Amino acid sequence: MPQSLERRNVVITGGDGALGQAVVRTFAAAGAICHLPILGADAIPPVAGVHVSGGVDLTDERAVTRFFANLPPLWASVHLAGGYAAKAIVETSRSDLDRQLELNLVTAFLCCREAVKAMRQSGGGRIVNVAARVVESPVGGSIAYSVSKAGVAALTRSLAVEVRGDGILVNAILPSIIDTPANRAAMPGADTGKWPQPDDLARAILWLASPEDRLTSGALVPVYGLA
Predict the structure, then answer these.
(1) What percent of the chain has pLDDT over 70?
(2) Closest C-alpha among 221, 34, 57, 19 to residue 128
(3) Angle at alpha carbon of residue 109, lines to 107 and 112, rounded to 5°
(4) Alpha-carbon distance 131 to 176, whole Å?
């Protein structure tokens, strides 16, 4: 496990989710100082090295700008916040599409933008987004979600090119269905043994966010497990 994150400041969005909690544990164990913008902070217990900012709506441009502007020098920004909705296209309304774009793409875009501003001031850093397997292996029944995650993938690749001269590396992971309590409850008959574990994904994210990654940028990393 990379140890060079010791005392480095890292933003982790979605830190109150199943994957987010695993990422926070993994980064804190690697010595990072974790900054969590959370809409409702009550679900995050006090942990050494973890700073929670409650009441931050990541779809609100001003709120995101204000949060990043108040951070100490930033090394990495990990964007896990998002949401999933499954509907066939004939049942998908404009508001359904807007909501998925807002939760998945807009939040990533705003955080990427503000992270770049901060990292240019501190001399470089790492950005990690979360797209999804559907970007490269499309499925039916979740059109709005798939479109929003395709936007995150395009954002990642385009941004990696734009900031290549700033010492900032930008990548994304492409998970399949993650083994979480919510997914198990929603799909009780599924073969969960093939689902990637949050802790395994957290370790992949940790490497992409670490100084040990000196070359990889613009990658969409498949983390499918055995599915």
Answers:
(1) 95
(2) 221
(3) 105
(4) 10
